[in-house]
């Protein structure tokens, strides 16, 4: 894949994932501090790690660290923040598995990584919207 396209997709997908994660976090935490600062640090950390190292282990580690950094922007106990972070990660992993399965079942095309990432974010967004609707009802 073209390096420029890989770079742009990584930037866009990480921004989309952080937006969807924010929707999930906002379900559980109502009072906020200056969260934009924490989201910015998380965005830079996770995107830079992905673009520089392309290591699954480092991506997972920085995603967890980035989410913990984001959680520091919200009021609540550390125990609750870690629990909510792990729930969001589990939901994300579940949707990633579904997305990869759906994409790999279709033999057309060769951009599985981009397509599955996009589908995963869409599924996460739908899940957040459904959960948000249940929470407000």
How big is the Rg?
A: 15 Å
Low-confidence stretches: none
| Topology pattern, helix = H, strand = E | HHHHH
How many strand units? 0
Note the total helix count: 5
Fold and architecture overview:
By secondary structure, this protein is mainly alpha-helical. 82% of the residues lie in helices and 0% in strands. It contains five helices and no strands. The chain has helices at residues 3-28, 35-53, 56-71, 78-104, 112-136. The longest helix is centred in the middle third of the chain and has 27 residues, at 78-104. It is globular and about 45 Å long. The model has no long low-confidence stretch (mean pLDDT 84).
Short description:
The chain has 137 residues and is mostly helical. The chain is 82% helix and 0% strand.
Helix-strand layout with pairing:
Layout: H1 3-28, H2 35-53, H3 56-71, H4 78-104, H5 112-136
Helix pairs in contact: 1-2, 1-5, 2-3, 3-4, 4-5
